[in-house]
Amino acid sequence: MKTFPIKKYALYGGGVTICTLIVVVLVFVDFQGENDTINEIPPWLEESEETELEEEAADGVLVVDVKGMVASPGVYELEVGSRLFEAIEKAGGFTDSANREAVNLALRLEDEMVVYVPKEGEDEGAGPVLAVEMNETDHEDTININEATEADLLTLQGIGPSKAAAIIGYREENGSFATVEELMNVSGIGEKTFEALEPLIRVK
After folding, report:
1. Distance of CA 197 to the CA centre of its chain
2. 79, 93, 115, 169: most buried, per Cβ within 10 A?
């Protein structure tokens, strides 16, 4: 009968067991490290999320410029979806001389609008005028009064057929407008009407 060197095999078995335990421990530690890395949120991602939240909060507010026959003309912040009557309330309400019949109180407001409330007896169609303020370089939504046809001019709130004809007649008689302010030289266009039209027009 053969005899096996028990002591020798016991040493081998113990060595294998120890090696296996070491490998298991190393794998477990490495796995835990990966989990910690995954659970950590990079600082840049946190900043990005904060910025998005701030932008979402800002998107809930619109700013309008209220002019004309209101108690306290000025720039006011309102919630997105607000109507014209809310802007007028913010501005202290109508004055006694306001032409209330000319105002659509249910009109929905948009950011950067100019709201103009005309007075009683003011030029027909003078307001209210609401428009998006433009930078000097933003021409997409403004009318070039030196090139505008009658149809183009009629798209401007406050300009009816008679005023459109007067603008074209003035242009034909005197040449191109040098500045938008020159529009006040046209018969029927006073300072208040011009103030409402100014954000909507250009000469170049």
Report:
1. 21
2. 115
- 67 touches 97 (CB < 8 A): no
Q: Report the amino acid identity of residue 111.
A: D
Cis peptide before 5 (omega within 30 of 0): no
Tokens 């100019």 -> residue: 114
Tokens 């948009």 sit at which residue? 110
pTM: 0.40
Domains of the chain by residue range: 6-56, 60-202
pLDDT in tens, 11-39: 555 556 666 667 666 655 555 555 554 45
How close are the terminal C-alpha atoms of the chain, in Å? 114
E-strand ranges in 69-177 read 74-79, 113-117, 129-132, 143-144
